[in-house]
């Protein structure tokens, strides 16, 4: 996928690369500090309509294990990671995070400096954000 931008309501812009569903998304930008269980984060209804950023630097290592995830929906509007694993190593994996997000219509954004973005969120709190291929 190509370049995409995270546009924050305070005017800050972070450049990254889109993966998952090819589309735009908007919502309140929040974060998850979980070190494992990204599939549970994706399925958590508390994140409905939000753009969720993972603070752990590499997401997708064990792929998608539907037995553990179930067939439920992805509630969040978009998913941001520092780096996503393109080739999961779990023998139970049934697919990649990229394919999973595509199948659920959820855009992903990787290559963002999540440490810098986390500092912004800690200082200013959650804020509205948009993921777009175009700059305003």
Task: Describe the protein's architecture and organization.
The chain has helices spanning 38-42, 66-69, 97-103, 114-124; strands spanning 3-8, 13-20, 25-32, 51-54, 58-59, 78-80, 83-84, 107-110, 127-132. It is an alpha/beta fold and 136 residues long. It has one domain (3-127): Glucose Oxidase, domain 1. Strand 3, helix 1 and strand 4 (51-54) form a beta-alpha-beta unit. The radius of gyration is 14 Å and the shape is globular. The chain starts with a strand and ends with a strand.
- Report strand %: 25-35%
**Series of H and E elements:** EEEHEEHEEHEHE
CATH architectural group: 3-Layer(bba) Sandwich
Low-pLDDT stretches are none
Name the CATH superfamily assignment: Carbamoyl-phosphate synthase small subunit, N-terminal domain
Q: What would you call the structural class?
A: alpha/beta
Q: Regarding CATH, which class?
A: Alpha Beta
Amino- and carboxy-terminal Cα gap: 20 Å
Strands side by side in the biggest sheet = 1-2-8-6-4-3-9
Fraction of helical residues? 10-25%
- The count of β-strands is 9
- Whole-angstrom Rg: 14 Å
Using brief descriptors, characterize the structure shown:
two-stranded parallel ribbon; alpha/beta; 136 residues; Glucose Oxidase, domain 1
